[in-house]
Amino acid sequence: MGTKATRRAATHARREEILDAALRCFVEKGYASATIEEIRLSAGASIGSLYHHFSSKEELAAALYVEGIADYQDGMVSVLGANCVSDDGIKAAVTYHVRWAVEHADLARFLFSVREPDVVGSRAEELAAMNQRFFGTARDWLAPHVRASVIRQLPFDLTYALWIGPAQELVRNLVFGRVRSSWKTAAAVLGDAAWRSLREEPA
Questions:
Q1: CB-neighbour burial class of residue 138 (10 A; exposed 0-12, middle 13-18, buried 19+)
Q2: Exposure of 135 by Cβ count < 10 A (0-12 exposed, 13-18 middle, 19+ buried)?
C-alpha cells in the first residue's frame, strides 16, 4: 500500500486526467453537446472514479473555467511583479497574455466558446473574489507609474482595455486559426501599441 502522499498524488493525477478529457470533449463537440459519459470514456475512468471527483458535466466545466482563469491570473501577477519599469511591464503583460493563449490553446478556445454565467455555477463567488484580487493587483502595479506621470491617468476600465483589449481580440482569432502572423511578432507590435497608448506624453 502506498503512502498517503503517493495516494494523494495519484488522486490528483486522476482528477487532472478527467479534466483533460472534459476539455477535449468540450472543444471537439461543444460544451452543450458533450456528455458526461463521453468524458468518462475519453478519460478511461470508471463511473465511481469520475463521480468521486465531479458530480456533473457542469461541475467539470466550472473547474476548467475557474482553474484556467486562476492559472492565467497567477502567471500575469508574476509577470507584473518581475517588471517594475513601466514600459517593460506594459509590454511584458501583453506578451504573456498572447503566449498563455498559445500555450493553452484548447483551454483558451473553451474559455472563448462559453458564457461565464452558464458554466461557473457554484464557483461564481470564488471567481468573483479571484477577479477582485487580480484587478486590484493590476491597479496597484499601475498606481506608482500614474503618480509619477509616466502612465496616463485614466479610469481603470479604459486603461485595461487599451492595455489588454487588442491582445484579447488577437488571441480570440488566433486560437481559432484566424491569424496568419507569428504570435511573437503580433505580441511585440501590440505591446508597443499598448505602451504608446498608455504613456503620459510630455507637456
A1: buried
A2: middle
Q: Do 93 and 80 form a contact (C-beta atoms < 8 A)?
A: yes
Q: Whose CA is closest to 199, among 135, 146, 154, 151?
A: 151
Q: What angle is formed at CA 83 by the lines to CA 78 and CA 89, rounded to 5 degrees?
A: 100
Number of helices and strands in the chain (H, E):
10, 0
Contact by Cβ (8 Å): 75, 102: no
- Please report the domains of the chain, with CATH numbers, ordered by start residue: 1-55 (1.10.10), 56-198 (1.10.357.10)
User: Which cell is 75 given?
Assistant: 502567471
Handedness of CA 98, 65, 14, 18 (dihedral sign): negative
Instruction: Map residue 34 onto helix, strand or coil.
Output: coil
Set of cell numbers at residue 159: 486603461
**Residue appearing with cell numbers 507569428:** 182
pLDDT in tens, 86-138: 999 999 999 999 999 999 999 999 999 999 999 999 999 999 999 999 999 99
Residue 12 scores a pLDDT above 90: no
121: left (phi over 0), alpha (psi -120 to 50) or beta: left
Compute CA 53 distance to the chain's CA centroid, rounded to the nearest angstrom. 22
